[in-house]
Amino acid sequence: MTIPRFDDVRDAPLATDEEVLQRAELLLGHAIRRQLWLMFLDEYDRQLPLLMPTYVPRRPGPGHQENYARVLGVLFEDAEADSMVVAYERRGTEALSSVDRAWLQLVRDACAHAGIRLRGPLLVHDGGIRWIAPDDLV
C-alpha cells in the first residue's frame, strides 16, 4: 500500500467515518509504538497538511486531561482546523484494554473541554485500525 502524497488527496473531503478510517489506514497502517496521532481537517472536511505523532506514557495520570485539552486546543487553533481526527496507536490486538479506554476517554473529554470537534477516535493496533464507537468506551 502506497502512502498518498498530500497534493494527491488535498481536495478529497473526509465526510464520512469510513473515509476517515480509509485515510488513516493509508497513512498509519498498523501499530509500531505507543503514541497519539493528530490529523486536522478544514471546514470542508479536507485534510490539512499536518499529521502529528505525539508521545504518550503507558497510562494517563493526574492532570493529563487538563494538559491535553490545553495543548490540543493550541494545536487546533494554530492549524486553523475545523475538526480533528485522533488515533491512539499501541502494539497488540484490536481488543480494548482498560488502559486503552482510559486514553481514548481522556482524548474524547479533552477535545470536548477544548471545544474541538473530534472525528474518531481510532485505535491503531498490530492488525490495522479500527473506529472506536462511544459504546466501546463504556
Automatic annotation (TrEMBL):
This is Uncharacterized protein. It comes from Homoserinibacter gongjuensis. The lineage of its organism: Bacteria, Bacillati, Actinomycetota, Actinomycetes, Micrococcales.
